[in-house]
Write a structure and sequence with these properties.
The complex is a heterodimer.
Chain A (H helix, E strand, L loop, with lengths): L1 H13 L3 H4 L12 H28 L24 H13 L22 H9 L2 E4 L8 E4 L13 H7 L11 H4 L3 H10 L15 E2 L7 E2 L20 H16 L3 H34 L9
Antiparallel strand pairs in A: 1-2, 3-4
Helix pairs in contact in A: 4-9, 8-9
Chain B lengths: L7 H10 L2 H30 L5 H15 L1
Classes of the chains: A mainly alpha, B mainly alpha.
InterPro entries (chain B): QCR9, QCR9_sf
Protein name (chain B): Complex III subunit 9
Keywords (chain B): Electron transport, Membrane, Mitochondrion, Mitochondrion inner membrane, Respiratory chain, Transmembrane, Transmembrane helix, Transport
Chain lengths: 303, 70
């Protein structure tokens, strides 16, 4: 019985019906009727026009025409395999701590993150011990203050967003942990913002409490210029010019946003080398395996 | 190639690759050495490209500065 069914189905599968063989695709534009040609042409035009319109509208939505776009600066770490300049990151930490930390938090940074990255353990411990942290409750159920430890977060300048707004004319100083990745242009934008303050051009009104900065979308920023020549003194004796301070704090914030930066690039070298070998051999194997098929003509001949 | 002289490739094949057991062992041991050499090599390249920029370089500088202050 099974053999019968098998034979029957095999017959059905293999028997060439003339209708199948002579079937012809009728998809050519030439063979269409006049009306259908018109319909296809109209459909094509409408689609292309619609896509064009969508692109144009989308471009227009980026209404930052009056904003200055930041130039690209030659960062030490900009190369495909370039590590962060740790001396610069360390100076940047000093700038953040002495200037920016008055208004901006680094919510996701702990003191332990500094160890082995820009300072030794005992130095980081001393850094942490400079702040007071509320801990507890103790055995009387009371909260108490103690010096910071490596496991503590960086201190926040304000207890909450409302307090931050109240102290800054209603504007919220954003958390800086991921700010480099959160802004178009990354550290180029940050550097431009920090060094780009200037007098507003004639005819441009800047509201009370705001400051003119051509790189900030809209032109008026609630943050006053924070960096000036010699505003702090560097540990390593580097002259603390405005641009040096800005460059260092940008490098520091890149490291904060991307602590795995150097490891990632170190692995990049390995990945490039290994994948070059693997891809080449995969390509070679594909060619080798397909060669017999590609050089033969295979015909299906029923019966 | 004479009858008694065996090429190196043949020798390697006969001693290492011919039997599955030795073949697998060759891969395991080979991986060990390859990975070590590869890590060292790429690490060296990275350190050359980034000479003076990494934490180990900063650490040396910090120690120098601390020594000078004393």
């Amino acid at each position: 019985m099974a053999t019968l069914v098998g034979r029957a189905s095999k017959q059905a599968l293999l028997r060439a019906h003339s209708s199948i063989i002579h079937q012809k695709a009728n998809l050519s534009f030439k063979n269409l009727s006049k009306g259908k040609k018109w319909a296809v042409a109209a459909f094509g035009t409408l689609t292309a026009g619609g896509v064009g319109l969508a692109v144009a509208l989308n471009t227009a939505v980026l209404a930052s025409d009056l904003t200055l776009h930041p130039p690209k600066y030659p960062w030490d770490h900009a190369g495909l395999l370039s590590a962060l300049d740790r001396a610069s990151v360390r100076r940047g930490y000093q700038v953040y701590k002495q200037v920016c930390a008055a208004c901006h938090s680094l919510e996701y940074m702990y003191y332990r993150n500094l160890v082995g990255e820009i300072m030794e353990e005992d130095e980081a411990k001393a850094e942490a011990a400079e702040i007071m942290v509320v801990d507890g409750p103790n055995d009387q159920g009371l909260m108490f203050e103690r010096p910071g430890k490596l496991s503590d977060k960086f201190p926040k300048p304000y207890p909450n967003d409302e307090a931050a707004r109240a102290a800054n004319n209603g504007a919220l100083p954003p958390d800086l942990t991921y700010i480099v990745n959160a802004r178009h242009g990354g550290e180029n934008y940050l550097f431009s913002i920090l060094t780009g303050y200037c007098d507003p051009p004639a005819g441009v009104e800047v509201r009370e409490g705001l400051h003119y900065n051509p790189y900030f979308p809209g032109g008026s920023i609630a943050m006053a210029q924070a960096l000036y020549n010699e505003i702090i003194e560097y540990d390593d004796g580097t002259p603390a010019t405005t641009s040096q301070l800005a460059k260092d704090v940008c490098t520091f914030l890149r490291w904060v946003a991307e602590p795995e930066h150097d490891t990632r690039k170190r692995m990049g070298i390995k990945a490039i080398m290994i994948f070059t070998v693997l891809l080449t051999s995969a390509y070679y194997m594909k060619r080798a395996k397909w060669a017999p098929l590609k050089t033969q003509k295979i015909a299906f001949k029923p019966r | 190639m004479g009858v008694n002289t065996v090429s190196i490739a043949t020798k390697i094949y006969q001693t290492l690759f011919r039997r599955t057991s030795t073949f697998a062992l060759t891969i395991v041991v080979g991986t060990l050495f390859f990975e070590r050499a590869f890590d060292e090599g790429t690490g060296y390249i990275f350190d050359r490209i980034n000479a003076g920029k990494q934490y180990k370089d900063l650490k040396k500088q910090l120690e120098l500065r601390a020594a000078k202050e004393e």
